[in-house]
Amino acid sequence: MPEQPALLLIAHGSRDPRHAATVDALVHRLRAMRPGSDVATAYLDHCAPRIPQVVGRLDGAPAVAVPLLLNRAFHAKSDIPAALREAGGELPLADVLGPSPLLLDALDRRLAEAGPDVHSAAVRARTGVVLAAAGSSDPAADAATRALAADWQRTRGWAAVEVAYASAAGPRVPDAIAALRARGARQVAVAPYMLAPGLLPDRIADAATGADLLAPVLGAAPEIARLLLQRYDRARTLTAAVALSA
Predict the structure, then answer these.
(1) Are 228 and 30 in contact (CB under 8 A)?
(2) Secondary structure class of 138 (helix, strand, coil)
(3) 141-157 residue pLDDT tens
(4) Are 232 and 94 in contact (CB under 8 A)?
(5) CA-CA-CA-CA torsion for 204, 206, 210, 214, nearest 10 degrees?
(6) Do the beta carbons of residue 223 and residue 198 sit within 8 Å?
C-alpha cells in the first residue's frame, strides 16, 4: 500500500506553556484515534520546533500540513503558506477547522462541563450564550464567527447567542452579557471560542464575572481531534486526485 503522508499539525505558538501542553494533548489524541499514524507538530512563533525545522526533518517524505486554526484569517491565508514556501516544503495545506458542526459539538461539551443542566432543552431555551472569540482584522473571519453563532443558536436551541471579541473591535464580553440580559435571558453563559489557554482566554475569563457560567477553552476535545483528521483526510484525498489527473 502507498505510504500514508504524515500529518503536520501547525499551531500558532504562545509564550504561555499551557498552549504547547494543549497541542501535545491534541497530538496524543490524534495518535490514539489513528493508531500508527505519523503526527508531527510545528509552530509559527514562540514555541519550538518551528516550521523550517520540521519540514527539514521530513526530508521530502509525504506530509499534509493541517493548521490548528478556527478561522481562515491572516495566519491561514498568509503566514503558514509563506512559512512553508520559505522552508522549501511543497506540502498540501488542509483547510482550517471552521466552519463545522463538530465545533458546535465541542462548544456544547465545554459548556456542559461548566453547567451540566445545559443538556436540557428547557434550560437552553432560557439560556443566552456569549461566543467569545479572539477577533480579527479580517472581516471574513469575523463573519464566519458570527455565522457559527447563528448556527449554534438555531440548531441547539439557545435563547440567544451573542458574539464578543477579546481583541480587535468590539463588542466585548460585558457588552454581550448585558445585551443577553436585556433580551430576557434568565441564565447567561460565556463560551470561549479558543483552542488553548493563554492571554486572550484569560482576558475573557476576567471579563465574564457578570455571567452565570464560564466554559473552558475547546482544548484537546475529541471533536477537535476528529475535525483535524477530517481536514487531513480531505486534503490527502484531493492531492491524490490531482496527482492522478495530472
Answers:
(1) yes
(2) coil
(3) 999 999 999 999 999 99
(4) yes
(5) 60
(6) no
- Express as a percent the part of the chain with pLDDT over 90: 85
Query: Does the CA dihedral 146-15-79-81 come out positive or negative?
Result: negative
| Per-residue pLDDT tens over the stretch 168-205 | 678 999 999 999 999 999 999 999 999 999 999 999 99
- Helix (H) / strand (E) containing 191: strand 187-192
Q: Which of 162, 165, 155 has its CA nearest to residue 182?
A: 162
Q: Is the link from the previous residue into 99 a cis peptide, with omega within 30 of 0?
A: yes
- The candidate with the shortest Cα–Cα distance to 146, out of 127, 131, 125, is 131
Cell numbers found for residue 14: 504562545
Question: In this structure, what C-alpha cell is assigned to residue 232?
Answer: 487531513
Q: Which three cell numbers stand for residue 110?
A: 465545554
Residue type, 173: V
**Predicted confidence band at 1 (pLDDT cuts at 50, 70, 90)?**
very low
* pLDDT per position as a tens digit, 12-22: 999 999 999 99
